[in-house]
Write a structure and sequence with these properties.
elongated; three-stranded antiparallel β-sheet; D-Amino Acid Oxidase, Chain A, domain 2; 255 residues; 2 domains; binds flavin-adenine dinucleotide; FAD/NAD(P)-binding domain
């Protein structure tokens, strides 16, 4: 607490400092990856809805709301919608509703100049994580509760409004452990996790359709792995194998 005065924790708590921990700026990172892919010859088609991914002799047909594409292989990385695109995928994926809030610091000093790092705190209120204000990216301290209410939802029909009860679930930990962030709620958003039973990723070929590669690298912690997941998927789609050990991500582990 002397080093990071924004936190208030009981004396019996233990802290783990990861010196090389940090924050990824998501949107610039995605833009950079798309730009690199385009430079390497990829065609990025946005706002186009894939209706079906169908195995064909020697490849795959992707049917969209604008036509169809014949390809040698397809990587399906459709997030919370992977099961609706591949109904035959017998993976026990669960989509859960998550909520994030951005809170005005009551003492901005404590969150400026690197005084407060990105954090995860496990307390009697559950596991909360957060990111201090990020200049132009977002004002306020971003805080959320991992597995918020652990509520299974339909990705196309879930409550995207943030209620007072949602806010209270996040504020409970803030009030006790990061009181200097317990100011006005500046903004709040909902989001979706795609959970596997063991919280690990799913990367495998669709049984019976080896040219369709399924990628569900989420369970609430997949973004930071995007470059290596991309590498693995590219290997599988182009050479059929990858030097990375991906056994732990197999579909077969679910029996
Ligand atoms: C609240 C919250 C906090 C998180 N915090 C972190 C964190 O701090 N660090 C971290 O590493 N990860 C974090 N994650 C997890 C991370 O966001 C996910 O693991 C990651 O986004 C999964 O990437 P994806 O490409 O599999 O899915 P997505 O990013 O969901 O991308 C799937 C895309 O497929 C598109 N799509 C779906 N169906 C179709 C269709 N039929 N036709 C065309 N397009 C379609 C969707 O529109 C979407 O753009 C967090 C997630 C949430 C919800």
């Amino acid at each position: 607490m002397r080093r990071f005065p924004a936190f208030k924790v009981p004396p019996d708590y233990v802290g783990v400092l990861q010196p090389d921990g940090g924050v990824l700026e998501v949107e610039p990172a995605i833009a950079a990856q798309l730009a690199l892919a385009t430079a390497a010859g990829a065609k990025i088609r946005t706002g186009e809805v894939v209706r079906a991914v169908e195995p064909r002799a020697g490849g795959v047909r992707i049917v969209t709301d604008r036509g169809s594409v014949e390809a040698g292989a397809a990587i399906v990385a459709a997030g919370a919608w992977v099961r609706s695109l591949l109904p035959e995928l017998a993976a026990p994926l669960r989509v859960t509703r998550e909520v994030m809030g951005w809170f005005e610091p009551t003492d901005a000093q404590l969150f400026s100049g690197g005084c407060t790092p990105v954090f995860i705190i496990e307390s009697r209120h559950g596991m909360h994580y957060g990111i201090p204000p990020q200049g132009s990216v977002h004002a306020g301290v971003k805080v959320a509760k991992h597995h918020h209410r652990n509520e299974t939802v339909d990705p196309d029909a879930y409550d995207r409004t943030v209620s007072a009860a949602d806010e209270a679930l996040i504020r409970a930990a803030i009030a006790e452990h990061i009181p200097a962030a317990n100011g006005r709620l500046i903004a709040a958003k909902t989001c979706l996790y795609t959970m596997t039973p063991d919280g690990d990723f799913l990367i495998d070929r669709l049984p019976g359709a080896p040219d369709i590669i399924v990628a569900s690298p989420c369970s609430g912690h997949g973004f930071k792995f995007a470059p290596v997941i991309g590498e693995i998927l590219a290997d599988l789609a182009t050479t059929g194998a990858t030097p990375h050990d991906i056994a732990r991500f197999s579909l077969g582990r679910f029996g």
